[in-house]
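Worked Example 4.2. Consider the chain below.
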Amino acid sequence: MSNKEKGSKAERELYQMFIENGYRAVRVAGSGMAENTSCDLIAGKKGKKFSIEVKSSKKPAKYIDKKQIEEFLIFSEIFGLKPIVAVRFNRHGWFFLKPKHLEDSGKFWKISLDKARKKGKRFGQMFG
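Applying the procedure from the previous section yields the following structure tokens:
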């Protein structure tokens, strides 16, 4: 399975979680592939609106290009959406973090499993 297929699978999985929990959600077509597609999902329900950048990793850390996060934050601000980075670590499940909790590793922002456990929230904690 290619990285693109893995990413799409993670997006579909998270999309379904939102639907099952009473949210309305849309996957953003071309996310990560085309310009001006600066998030993977948009989800909301009364009084709550989120833009979500979705990542998955089989390793204990995930790195994200700084430009990608910058564009994600700009997109979120323009639309008045709360930005959330969702990361699924294999065998550990989903964690949801505010972008301010990403670690600066030079060229990239980093999400470690340890940091996700400390600062991240589970689905029900973040969106319940």
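The longest helix spans residues 3-20. The chain is about 35% helix and 35% strand. Compare this with Example 4.1 before moving on.
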